[in-house]
User: Fold this.
Amino acid sequence: MPLVELRNVSKIYHLGGEEIRALDDVTLDILAGEFISIIGPSGSGKSTLMHILGCLDSPSKGTINLDGTLIQNARPRELARIRNEKIGFVFQFFNLLPKLNVLQNVELPMIYSGMPSGDRQERAMAALKLVGMENRAKHRPMQLSGGQQQRAAIARALVNNPRIIFADEPTGNLDSNTGEAILQLFCQLSQEGRTIALVTHDPEIAGRTPRRIEIRDGKVATQADPKLSGLARN
Amino acid sequence: MNLSNAITVGFKEIWAHKFRSLLTMLGIILGVSSLVAMSALVKGMENGMRDALIAIGGLEKVRIEEEELPTYQAHLIDQATGLTMNDVRALKQSAPLIRLVTPEMRTQRTTITRGGKSFNPFNFVGTWPTALEMNQHVVEHGRMFTDMDDDYAQSVCVIGTMVRDELFGSPEKTGKEIIPIGEKITVSGQPLTIIGMFQHYESEQDRKARLLKLDQKDQSGVARSRGWQSKRGSSFVYRMKNGTIYVPLNTMWLKFRAASGTNNTPDPRLSGVSMKVASIDRLEPALQQARNVLLQTHRGLEDFQFQTQENWDEQIRSSIRNARMSGGIIAAISLLVGGIGIMNIMLASITERVRELGIRKAIGASDFIVFIQIIVESVVIAVIGGIAGIIASYALVQLLALVSPTENTPVITPNAMAVAFLFSALVGVLAGLIPAFKAARLNPIQALRYE
Assistant:
């Protein structure tokens, strides 16, 4: 059974009487352990797809089964718990809380899952070690470079041992060298057996993942656009 | 997320915006301190009023006075005996709910003279030594007359300080306190020896005013009386007490009543009987008991009535209630304004932190946790303000005492502090509700996009 199972998922917005189909009848499976990229131009609906996959948003139609839980019927409170325990987010703008230091940022998901403070610190340090940030635990986000901030954010995404990690343009705000290092980190995490879904508009990045899904006009493109899918790199 | 975490986050938020939080708290500080100070002032007022009530014998004291016969008994007027020593003895023996009985015999319009000075005292009373306890008198100099003085109808008296002031000179005028023990005074042509003098009775306000005047003694110019001093309501009680002369009951009867009686038989009727009930909670049954006894001795004729201080007590209660109500409303309004200040700042704070709240929600904070976090922050501001307000109320009370030095000392009660503190916490919860709802209902996707 796949880890994530989307069946005929649509997301429809109403804007001034006009119906906008951000997602149109998407059917998609993600298996445990997969490293998948979701690619598409801006406005294609890939962000909407990621929000729905990430339980931040609920679909207008269709069913989603994430690790045995039907998301479309879940109440906000259950969604919050699923986001907390089963999903890790990595954002383009890192989204660390500026008032907390790196360690406190990484501890945050465990605070919401109600873990005792001793375990929290231990696990947060372990996660920071995994991304090579153990020496920066007491720094504030503002004192770190973009790459370091993103590593801290990845540590935060990892710390509750989620079933799947969603990364939304994780290298979009980094220079190419740093971005490359972050991509390496994702590859390494994938090799350790984690499920990762990476949203990007950059075919080069999408080319690094074993599986690619292309979104165009709210639909999963059946025919790969060679320009976008990264196959036409040469 | 548990509560201590939420409180820690709340403190951090406040610390991150120290000045803003302080300004916000100021509203609560003012509200709470005015609430506490108001209640302290009212408490001081109440103490002053109660002191006056206690000074005339307290709520337990009941006077029995003569009264016209009711209409249906009017034709039996010849049988009415009035209050006599019979009644006193009967009450002492047969009314266990009455703790203390003291007879009083007065003469009207008595003039006391000494040398060229004369004075009409408020009370010239023949009574028993128990009158001391009955009317809360304290003999400061000399002694009270004894039962033996009474038995022998000795020509002795115990005076209040006002009598001394009028006949011998007051400490303010003579510059020293005269203690006229052993001196003789003349009452209606009969010499009396002063064997004791009461302490000087005065209200707290009068005492403060007097001490203040002592401090400012170096008033310049010709020495003169500076006009009639306005006297407050309660000080009448103290003036009356100071203008008292007690003589033994038998002295009064034999030496002062003899002259006024018919055919030189002294009139044995008492002017009144004072009694103290054993317990104020059992005032009603005690009065019933006393009435039953007196109806026996008066052969069914109701030529007496009871006089209690219940009305006075009720008056104190109602005026305190009114003062508390009006002050409380003003303080409550200022607390409300403080609460609106908190709500305002919390709304600004969540608008500022939309992105942070979005992040928190994305990584698993439920709506409820966000709600609680905002409420806790609001309550933390309010509670810190409340504690600071309680501390500030001490200063405020000192200030008020400085501004009006002759008023009753304000008394800060633990009750007032607890109420003010709870109110500030309640204001914190109420002020946090709307911002917390708004924060909890934030859509995480929009919040994450918020710049």
About this structure: The beta strands of chain A are 4-15, 18-30, 35-39, 61-66, 69-70, 87-90, 164-168, 195-200, 211-216, 219-220. The two ends of chain A are 37 Å apart (CA to CA). The CA atoms of residues 127 and 159 of chain A lie 6 Å apart. The helical segments of chain A are 46-53, 76-85, 102-112, 117-130, 146-158, 176-191, 203-206.
